[in-house]
User: What shape does this take?
Amino acid sequence: MAHLRSRRRLALAVPVVLSLTASLGFLPTAASAASAAPRAVSAEQATDAPALAYVVNTKADRRTIASVERAIAAAGGKVVVTYDRIGVIVVHSANPDFGEEIRAARGVQSAGATRTAPLTAAGTTDEGAADFVTAAEAARTEAVSARTPGSEPLEADQWDLRAIGADKAAKINDGSRRVTVAVIDTGVDDTHPDLAPNFSASQSANCVGGKADTSEGAWRPYTADDYHGTHVAGEIAAARNGVGVAGVAPGVKVAGIKVSDPDNGLFYPENVVCAFVFAADHGVEITNNSYYVDPWLYNCMDDPDQKAIVDAVNRAQLYAQRKGTLHLASAGNSNHDLASDAIVDDSSPDDSTPVERTIDPSECFDVPTQLPGIVTVSATGVQNLKSYYSTYGKGVVDVAAPGGDRKYQLPDTPSKDGRILSTMPNGEYAWLQGTSMASPHAAGVAALLKSEHPWASPAQLQALLKAQANNPGCPESYDQDGDGAQDATCEGGSRVNGFYGFGIVDALRAVK
Ligand SMILES: [Ca+2]
Ligand SMILES: [Ca+2]
Assistant: This one.
């Protein structure tokens, strides 16, 4: 995954957090206790030596699928799960030629490995850490906000809510209980006091491995290090309950669909396929996707494996759109211009040994954010200016939202922290920044719009989101580090441009 995530996850979202935490020498209190938790190893992982996972995409009819399933067995593959309505079959195989052999089988439209490291590979353990709110900080901010009646204890530090009018919106309409936003991520700790009131367990699952597990608590993070999804969930729907923080849409429901691998934290494609199908089949109105599917930051259509990944995830997300689900996704944290002719990526594949390659972003896609119909969200700071890390691109970014900028855009809040404050596992709170934090703000506004317009289709919701957004326009200069060279080039006009798409989302207009 990877617009952030623990190990890889952090690469996108919060590299700065990591270094800062290290330099301050603080440890997240929650992380160490939980990391001793056992990791499940399936029988298959234990016995099938160097197996890879594959997606095999076919015409979605019973006959074709049955014939392809026979071909899969003949090629030494084992079907893990078949999504017959979209013609996507998840397979494990230890045959090194499985991909080539199955692509030649009748009825197969695309097929390829979803990883470059064997299923048995253990992940790295370079855990990242967020900056948790210390007791002293919490007491200070609570004292400040106690003077603001009707606000949450930590709300004085939530500049992001005020930036999009979410504090005022909550007084008019805080969202409908009939709207659910599913957080496709590292799991959600629904026992957090700020999340418990709004959590929808019946729409939550663990999709790791490609097949949904809905048993009690399966949606929870493996350890407190897998905090990303819990932070995202709070940004969307932390309750206005006199405790901690508030989300953008504190009256809607939030669900968790876990897709991060327990060994390495990666968001493999088959997990994400499962998540979109599960969300669609369980009446989820909106999904938030603060990641890219691993192991490739950009999936190129001239590579058979990467093409199969794009195809499989796209089928799943389109299926959900047809069932009425709107998807929002982070643009990425690489400060890349997705409208340029060439991008140098040296981060992929991120599950084995990355190689440097120059890709054309019109033929190689960041999935899911560049898939059709998905709302691509860039990040801004307190000055309503693109965050230094945010990926952008004219015709690619749809809207912008607060994701934080701790380097160049500092708020006049009690903490002076330019990032986003939200919920963490084990009842804690912490600041993070990234387009991972921007997408959930836009998802929260979309949830308010859905509350006001219950019959709106995904396309209509997206149109409303864009029509109500406020566009700062391209800045005259974007030399954030002050070295005299532009750090990114904003193309377009005051209505739509590469930094902000149609503009920064507006929670207040959504409910007026
Ligand atoms: Ca609260
Ligand atoms: Ca510069």
About this structure: The CA atoms of residues 296 and 315 lie 18 Å apart. The first helix runs from residue 8 to 13.
